[in-house]
Structures are given as structure tokens and as C-alpha cells.
Design a protein that fits this description.
This protein has about 180 residues and is α+β, with helices and mostly antiparallel strands. Helices cover about 35% and strands about 30% of the residues. Helix 2 packs parallel to helix 4. The structure holds zinc ion.
Length: about 180
């Protein structure tokens, strides 16, 4: 057994094959744009600005997935200078990020996330977001938590200039057949 294998085994036994990842994403809000959050289109007079469909929640989850295995970030894998990703549905980016996790032999245990936005109220869309994300990540909906908060009208979120999402994921190494 090589030195690297020994140190990996030691690490694996210590962590039981668990890896944690965190992600954060920001987007500006502006008119003439659609608002996609968590893979769901939400009717609003402002939408998120970005190269893709600017889905702040899905992007934060992508970064958390990639981060858990130290695979870099969403900008490395899906550069915003690439025409391939112009206006792309971020559900595709989430699927591709998840595929990278699976290729490394891991699956997702659970996702916890928080959205910070002043308007609109998104409570009634949360269950739809949960099932969309759970469907992509091959999870039950109760393994996908989406919380939402305003910033009490403070800062750029409070002025409705932008929105933020934070995500944490736990991964576990899948059992070998
Ligand atoms: Zn983004």
C-alpha cells in the first residue's frame, strides 16, 4: 500500500467517508429579467442578472457540492465567458455538478440552505423548489431544507438591489458494490 493510500485510509476511517461543503452566491436584481430561484420561476417585477438564468440558490448548492470534494467552484467548471452557458437553465448546472460528485463515488446526504431577499415572498414556492432540487440530487424532499429571511430592509438585499443564497451539503461515499 502506498503512503498516499495509507493516509487516505486513515482519513477515511476518521471521517467515515463524510465530506461537508458550503456555497454562497449573489446576484443583482433588475427589471426585464426573469426570477428563477431553486429551479422555479417566480413572478416578480425584477429578476436576477447573470450570464446563466442567474438562479442564486442552485448556484450556491453547486458550489457546496463542488466544495465538499475540493473540486473548485462553479466559475471554474461553467465559466461565464462561455457561450455554452449563456442563459443556461441552472438545473443543468446542478445536474452536472452532481454528476461530478457521483463520478467521485459520493452521494448527497442532505442540503441546508438560506435565501436572503426582501421581496417577493417565496414561502409558497419552497415545496416546489425542494422537489425540484431533491429530484436532481436523488434525495427525498425532507433532505432538502430551504429557509428564507429578509435583512430587515438593511443593505443591498433590503433595498431590493440583489439577493443572496447560502448552502451547506453533506456528502457520503457510496458503498462499493
Ligand atoms: Zn450565480
Amino acid at each position: 500500500m502506498s503512503k498516499a493510500e495509507v493516509s487516505y485510509l486513515r482519513f477515511f476511517n476518521y471521517s467515515m467517508g463524510l465530506r461537508i461543503g458550503s456555497g454562497v452566491d449573489y446576484h443583482q436584481l433588475a427589471g426585464e429579467r426573469k426570477l428563477f430561484i431553486g429551479g422555479v420561476e417566480i413572478p416578480h417585477h425584477k429578476g436576477a442578472v447573470g450570464h446563466s438564468d442567474a438562479d442564486v440558490l442552485l448556484h450556491a448548492i453547486c458550489d457546496a457540492l463542488l466544495g465538499a470534494l475540493a473540486l473548485g467552484d462553479i466559475g471554474t467548471h461553467f465559466p461565464d465567458t462561455s457561450a455554452e452557458f449563456k442563459n443556461i437553465d441552472s438545473k443543468i448546472l446542478l445536474q452536472r455538478s452532481f454528476d461530478k460528485i457521483k463520478e467521485k463515488g459520493y452521494h448527497v446526504v442532505n442540503v441546508d440552505s438560506t435565501l436572503c431577499l426582501q421581496e417577493p415572498k417565496i414561502k409558497s414556492y419552497i415545496s416546489q423548489m425542494q422537489s425540484t432540487i431533491a429530484g436532481i440530487l436523488e434525495l427525498e424532499t425532507d433532505a432538502v431544507s430551504i429557509k428564507a429571511t429578509t435583512t430587515e430592509k438593511m443593505g443591498f438585499v433590503g433595498r431590493e438591489e440583489g439577493l443572496v443564497a447560502y448552502a451547506t451539503v453533506l456528502l457520503k461515499q457510496s458503498k462499493k458494490e
